[in-house]
Amino acid sequence: MIEEILIRDLGVISEAKLEFGPGLTVLTGETGAGKTMVLNALGLLLGERSDSSAIRKGQDQAFVEGRWLLAESAVARIRELGVELYDQELLVNRSVSAEGRSRAALSGKSVPVGILSEIGEQLVVVHGQSDQIRLRSAVAQREALDQFAGDALAEVLSEYTAVYENWKQASTRLTELTAQLEARSREADQIRSAVEELSSLDPKPGEDIELADKAAKLTHIEELRIAATAAHNNLSSEGFDDSSDALTMIGKARRALEAVSEHDPELAALAQQLKEIGYSLNETSASISGYLASLDGDGSAELERVQQRRSELTSAMRKYGPTLDEVIAFLENSGARLLELDSSDKEIQELTTLEQSLAKQATELARSITDLRTKAASSLAKAVTAELAALAMTGASLEVSVSTGAELGSSGADQVSILLSAYPGAEPRALGKGASGGELSRIMLAIEVVLAKSELAPTFIFDEVDAGVGGAAATEVGKRLATLAQNAQVIVVTHLPQVAAFATRHLRVLKSVSDQYTATDVVRLEGDAVVEELARMLSGLSDSESGKTHAKELLELAKASI
Length: 562
Hints:
Layout: E1 2-10, E2 13-19, E3 24-29, H1 35-45, E4 61-69, H2 72-80, E5 89-97, E6 102-106, E7 109-111, H3 113-123, E8 124-127, H4 138-149, H5 151-201, H6 207-219, H7 221-235, H8 246-260, H9 265-294, H10 299-320, H11 324-390, E9 397-409, E10 412-421, E11 429-430, H12 437-452, E12 459-463, H13 471-484, E13 490-493, H14 497-500, E14 505-513, E15 518-525, H15 528-539, H16 545-561
Parallel strand pairs: 3-13, 3-14, 8-12, 12-13
Antiparallel strand pairs: 1-2, 1-4, 4-5, 5-6, 6-7, 9-10, 10-11, 14-15
């Protein structure tokens, strides 16, 4: 609900503060007083294009600020747009400079002007001479019909939406798996071939390093044999002069010390050290002898076998590595990957069955939705047509068409069109075509009155909805605006006293003109001031006694008819 709007230096308005409230607020005043500027100010707050020519003469900028008190449902939607709120209050302001620059802010934070349009769609519905109709799109018309259909359709739609989403997900997954089927088959064949190759190869962790060491050893086997033989001979030269090997010489030295060790304990210790050295050299000699024995055999044949094995491992690492550990890991994980690939066939079969089942459910629910919409369309058309007759559009009729397409969408298979037949026998045409601005406003008023019975509506603003209407029909317009205002905030710009008489709050736009200054102010009328304004609207004279009497009759009539 709009609580107030502050306007500064816009058109003929120097500064004005409009306070609104729940129910029906009417805005009246002489032609040219500035009522249009009030609507222009609201349009700026709702994100409409700015025009620097609308700035009051001699001023640098125009400024408009509006304060809304939001319902809980609106709070959630506004916050989804990333707007900060203080409790349930939203503050919107807009400025337009003489250079044409426009700035906007929400709750004190600068925002792109485009955000105001998104916010405005949640807060206000404007119907006026410029054909700003809420139901201009097919989507909005379908949503309006669904709203009118009520809970019965809402429950089926909710169930359908869940089934539809699951169906689309299953269809998408099935398409992906089917498209990947050939690639998966190729991958499975490649893995099976690799497993066969690597199982035959049977690589072991660290085997490549061991083979590299072994190959290096076999490559230099003769050099190793010569060096080991020389070392063994120097330690223990069997078959040669005993005096030439290390073990013999150490043995002689030990025995020489032992012969005199009884005379000096230090020599005894040295003799013991030589004894231990002899044991160690003897063990080393035996090890070298064993090493020499290991070198016996056909070294060239063994080297060929090692190099062949290394070549096979290197080839495997190039294909599945680059390291031998990764090759082994590939072999170990291949079984699980094959199971995953082979399971895709089963998943495709299961998804196909699920997709077909969900498609059937969605189709059946869509038929139910179509039936409910078709029934609601007939009721909506009758209800709005009845309203049109009372709004001086006798002979005009509304047609709500529900056509079913071949494909299902997120809201069913239906296309909804709201059409108007301007007179008996006339071909139904889309809303906004073939009707004047005033007629269009009354059409939208009739629709909004009917829809308001099914759900709480936002703020509605009607600009001269009573254009071309008079007498009893004007009273009916006022009555329906009052009816709509029972469920929503309604703001109406009007020239008809029959409409103004139904107001919960009456605002008058006043213009004062002097030689050098023209200004517009907005005041709230109460009590006798309301009677005088209605008398002015009736007769052009606010102090006419007959006009005041008629005005009081209108107020009594309006009060009694609500």
